[in-house]
Amino acid sequence: MNRSGRGVREPLNTAYKAHQPVVMLALAVAFSLAGDVTIYVVVPVHYAALGLTPLQVGILLSANRWIRLASNHVARRILARGVPSRVLAAALAAGAAASLVYATAPPFFVFLAARALWGVAWSIIRHTGVMTSIGSRPESQAAGVYGIYNGVVELGFIAGTLAGALLFDGFGYSAAFVVAGMVSLFAIPLEIRGFRLLASVSTPAHEHTPANGKAGAALLFRGFVERAVGTGLIISTLGFALRSHFGEQLELGVITLGIATLNGLLIALNYTINCIGSPYLGRLVDRVGRRAGEITAFGVGALALGATALMPASPLLLPALLLFFVATVACKIALVAQAGVSGPRSFAQFVSAADLGAATGPIVGWLAIERAGSPEAVFLLGAALYLVALVSALRSRA
Fold this sequence. Notes:
The chain is mainly alpha-helical. The protein has two domains: 12-198, Growth Hormone, Chain: A, CATH 1.20.1250.20; 217-395, Up-down Bundle (Growth Hormone, Chain: A). The protein is 81% helix and 2% strand. It has 14 helices and two strands, in the order αααααααααββααααα. It has a two-stranded antiparallel ribbon with strand order 1-2. β1 (249-252) and β2 (255-258) form a beta hairpin.
């Protein structure tokens, strides 16, 4: 078995049966996201009616990420002592309960406690879903199977965001979260089905038990960079960059798009690339090897960001951004696969580093804008961080 992740093909029918449990578990995770994604759609536009201040909104939207810096390791220990299917079912129920608390429009500190509950629940849900999926197949197929899992989970982000917005506009605040909480409960029978399918599938995957090693500092750094740049620096400042370059509108032939619409379309494309592209990019990473895939992705991402900084008003700006989105997905898949095959402790350390990157990236991005006054500084900073990560990947032996 090749630790670099070079995969081999298997009969189509065998591959289909082997991936069914992964799809079921990923669907369970996707359903569990209903309440969380609705928060990001509804609360920023409805906070005044809830009696919240802008600062409190910022705290609520980031609280679950900060709590995960500790709860990721708690999740690993809980899962090491319990039956994964039962622990996951309890976490899914807790996530649904958090959504129902949101529906009551509670006082700030009760809201904050519910967000903390969701953060702990998500640590368990993510850890169980990723580690079970990666452990279900041979190590040489880790990136491919994670790509399938990630693609299905991203579908939950897309569907949940759209559904949350429609429910809020159509039925109001409380109804949106009550429905989200009830939808989240559908995750429980899906995860039960996934574990039953996993037990019934007879493949060489069951011979693979991930090690329980510690993640190296270099891997943690690269996970931090990937999330800080991809989720933080670029996505959080993209609207500012587009407005700076194109003004309030952009004319594309006979079509005129408002910048807010263009920003929304690009972010939606980022989610879509994650959803549709993950299975294909995962298989590609398995084919070339995780290390080679990571090196290529960081290199392409750095070039794409450099191009956006050097050609801010060029027609190539938008294609360069799309290329960057593809590179970030490939980076994520290669890195998560590497952390996953290294074991539960390595994965818990890795996702904590990634969560820290996701939480600090927007702060760094807007600080760069405040200091430099232009979005080019953000793109150059992102390119520089990706180049440092590239050097780290080149020096890595894994």
